[in-house]
Amino acid sequence: MPVSDPSLPGHAFAGAALDRADALRDDADALARLWTDARVLVLDADGTAFADASGQPFLTSGRELGGGPGAAIFLGMQQERAWFVVEAATVTARAPGRLDLRRAAAEWPAEVAGVFCYARGMSYWHSRNRFCGVCGGAVAFARGGFIGRCGRCGTEHYPRVDPAVIVAVEHDGRLLLGRQSNWAPRRWSVLAGFVEPGETFEQTVAREVFEETRVRVIQAEYLGTQPWPFPGALMVGFRATAHGDMPQVDGELEDARWFDADEVGAALRRDADDDGQGILLSPRISIARTLIEDWYRRQRP
């Protein structure tokens, strides 16, 4: 499979902010030494992060929190400084505000938003794996939070990521978009779906597009990926060509249609000047928007 297209425009969470420093995860003494000067992101149980009064990152340090890393999750290194994430319920720190990840992606510095994305995914995995799925025994976390061991049967559990494809499907200068009934009014996007056991990504593209719209994909080409911890997905982006079938929906989508370049271009411009009439597209932080913009550029060199 080819590497991602370097001309693909950016989206949130795609940067490499931290050295994940795998070798340090087993070194409890090193983590304890790093804790004092570490940057620590604090998350509430609902996945929101501590923020200051202006909505910017509220980052504390191990020195300010006291003690040692304990149940904190070691995220990695940025130059000589460690990053950890902790649950708000386990510390005494307080902050004037909270911010969810979608807003942080748009309003925080990209490198900090990327760490938040990483931290939220790990925190969610911890919160959903406190007991063993094999025997029900209590799970204790080790290796800086990257492995859970069942105290009863000894089964080891590892962080989980659920791959999903997301695809810009085109036919003869038109782009296939769909909308779900629970989305904001007028919102449309490209199609997506989770990979099932025994499938390649390309097979998932063809299956999901057909299941949701009855449009038959001819060929799919990989473009790039985006971590999407809502709660734990990895979005794998494609563009695809398809037959010009009339889209038909059966409940998963409320509607699906082909749109030409003029309609997509007008929708892109509504970010700045919404006329209140036509469709709206996925927000700029998402790979869905990246795929739409990439398709539009190819229609308007």
Any overview of this molecule?
The protein has helices spanning 28-35, 62-65, 101-107, 110-127, 201-213, 261-269, 287-299; strands spanning 39-43, 49-51, 60-61, 73-78, 81-87, 97-99, 139-142, 147-150, 156-157, 162-171, 174-179, 191-194, 217-228, 233-242, 255-260. With 301 residues, it is of the alpha+beta class. Helix 3 (101-107) packs antiparallel against helix 4 (110-127). The longest helix is centred in the middle third of the chain and has 18 residues, at 110-127. The two termini are 25 Å apart. Mean pLDDT is 94; it is low at 1-7.
The beta-strand count equals: 15
The count of helical stretches stands at 7
The N- to C-terminal Cα distance equals 25 Å
Shape: globular
Proportion of β residues?
Answer: 25-35%
**Helix content percent band:** 10-25%
Radius of gyration: 22 Å
Mean pLDDT: 94
> Class by helix and strand content?
alpha+beta
The main β sheet shows up as: 6 strands, mixed
SSE sequence, one letter per element? HEEEHEEEHHEEEEEEHEEEHH
Low-confidence stretches: 1-7
Report a brief summary of the structure.
The protein is α+β, with helices and mostly antiparallel strands. The chain has helices at 28-35, 62-65, 101-107, 110-127, 201-213, 261-269, 287-299; strands spanning 39-43, 49-51, 60-61, 73-78, 81-87, 97-99, 139-142, 147-150, 156-157, 162-171, 174-179, 191-194, 217-228, 233-242, 255-260.
